[in-house]
Every structure is written in C-alpha cells, then in structure tokens.
Amino acid sequence: MNYFLTLLGTLTIMFPVLASPVEAISFKVGDSEGWHSPGIDKPETFTLWTARKTFHVMDILWFEYKNDSVLVVDKWGYYHCDTTKPSSVFNDGNTTLVLDNPGKFYFISGDPQHCEEGQRLFVNVLPLPSNADSPAPSPVTSISGSSVVSVTVVSMLVSIAISALAI
Ligand SMILES: *[C@@H]1O[C@H](CO)[C@@H](O)[C@H](O)[C@H]1NC(C)=O
Ligand SMILES: *[C@@H]1O[C@H](CO)[C@@H](O)[C@H](O)[C@H]1NC(C)=O
C-alpha cells in the first residue's frame, strides 16, 4: 500500500497532466452531425467546426460515423484527398483518438468523394502550457510508428503509466 502511494506520488510529480485530467478535452468531431460528408453545398463544414477551437496535447477527437472511415494522412493527402497512403485507418464507426503530440494532424474520409465534398479535418495541436519546463520529448512511442502523424487510441494513457514505471 505504501509502495503504491509512493508510486502514485512519483507519477503525480513526473506527470502533472495525469493529476489534472480536467485539462484534456474530448471533442466530438462535427458535433451532433458527426463525421459525415457535408454534401457539395457546405464544403467548409469541418473547417468551420475547428475554427474557434483550440486543441492541446492529450485532448481527444471522437469520430462517430456510418458507412465511412477515418484516415490519418499527411498534408498532401489532406489537400488531394489521397486515400492511398494513410498512416492509420479506422472504420469501426466510433473512433476515439488521443492527440498525443503537438503539431498538425490531418484526417480524411476513406471515400475520396466524401473528402472532396469537405469531409476532411485539420487540427493544429498545441503543447500543454504547464509542460513548458518539463523534460520533453515524452517517452511515449506511437503505435502508428509514423514520424509524420502520431495518433493513438485511448489505451495510450495506460502506456504512459507503464513508461513511467520503466524509468
Ligand atoms: C450503409 O450502407 C448500406 C449498404 O450499402 C445501406 O443499406 C445503408 O442504408 C447505409 N447506411 C447509411 C447510414 O448510409
Ligand atoms: C461511441 O462511444 C461513446 C463512448 O464510448 C458512446 O458514448 C457512444 O454511445 C458510442 N456511439 C455509438 C454510435 O456506438
């Protein structure tokens, strides 16, 4: 028990973000409409959706969709609706992704026509303000293994804890 408490204290010191999970925000992409093709008359739908939002590391994107998919792509893939070289593909209809690194993340529908109609998303993920003086970079390795985009599933939180134990 004492060991556990000590461990918990250590984790709290090393990873203040875990001690204040309220900072992570879960965003449902497209709000109640979900992840869908906006149709040819509203191609700006997802650009407008991100316009007044700020994304930080450890925030969560939640995609809900039917007969569709979420592809994590690079900038070129985003602008050209290129579905041929995604770094990750999700088609379970209910995909939750942790934005585990700062930087630019690009998502498109696996249906190129949907993408061209505006079903594509770009988010710029900012570092956590409270992380300013902590020793970056994080020891977490992305499951996707991609150096361009690093988005992983919620279980990443568990990996962070495990990484902490290994230090
Ligand atoms: C999904 O696709 C199936 C088969 O093409 C179709 O019957 C169904 O209506 C579609 N559902 C939605 C929500 O588009
Ligand atoms: C998707 O997952 C969330 C959280 O696990 C749940 O609240 C929601 O009902 C799910 N949606 C669908 C369509 O299964």
Automatic annotation (TrEMBL):
Membrane topology, as annotated: Lipid-anchor; GPI-anchor
Family statement: Belongs to the early nodulin-like (ENODL) family.
Gene Ontology MF, one: electron transfer activity
Signal peptide: 1-19
Gene3D superfamilies the UniProt entry points to: Cupredoxins - blue copper proteins
Protein name stated in the entry: Phytocyanin domain-containing protein
Domain Phytocyanin: 25-127
Keywords: Disulfide bond, Glycoprotein, GPI-anchor, Lipoprotein, Membrane, Signal
GO cellular component, one term: plasma membrane
